[in-house]
Amino acid sequence: MSNPWEDPNQEQRAGGEPHKMPQGMPTGPVMPPVRKGIWYAWTPLIIKYLISICVSMAAVMGYTFIYISRHYEETVGAMQDQQDMLDLSVSISERMLQYTTQLEGITALIVIPVILYMFHRDRKNERLAGVIPNRKAPLWKYGAVAGIAAALCVGLNDLILISGISSYSASYQQTSDSLYSAPFGMQLLCLGVLVPISEELVFRGMMFKRLREQSGFMHAAIFSSVVFALLHGNMVQMLYAFATGMMLSYVYEKYGSVKAPATAHVVMNLISVTATRFGLFGWLMEDRLRISVVTVLCGALAAAMFVLIQRIDERPL
Question: Which residues are CB-contacts of 268 (< 8 A; sequence separation ≥ 6)?
Answer without folding.
Answer: 149, 150, 152, 153, 196, 244
